[in-house]
Amino acid sequence: MLQQNPLFLTFLLSFTIWSWGTLDGVVSEPQLSEVKSGCSPYNVSDVTIFNKNLNVTMRSLREQVSNQSKYFATAQAVKGNNPAYGVFQCRNYLSIKDCLACFDFAAFQIKNNCSVAATGARVIYEGCFLRYESSIFFDQSTDGGNHIVCGNRVAKNSTELASTVQKVLKNLVEAIPRIPGFFAATITPVPNSNNSNIYAIAQCLETLTQSGCQDCLESGFTSFQICLPSSNAKIFYAGCFMRYSTSAFFAANQTTNIKRILKPGDSSKKAIIGGVVGGASFILVLLALFALYSRSLSRRVHRVDILGATELKGPVNYRYKDLKSATKNFSKENKLGEGGFGDVYKGTLKNGKVIAIKKLDLEQSKKMEEDFQSEVKLISNVHHRNLVRLLGCCSKGQERFLVYEYMKNNNVGQFLFGEHKGSLNWKQRYGIILGTARGLAYLHEGFHVCIMHRDIKPSNILLDDDFQPKIADFGLARLLPRDQSHLNTKFAGTMGYIAPEYIMHGQLSEKVDTYCYGVVVLEIISGQKSGELKDDDEGQFLLQRAWKLYERGMHIEFVDETLDPNEYDAEEVKKTIEIGLLCTQASPAARPTMFEVVDMLESKGGLIDHKRPTMPVYVDPNLRP
Question: Model-level pTM?
Answer without folding.
Answer: 0.53
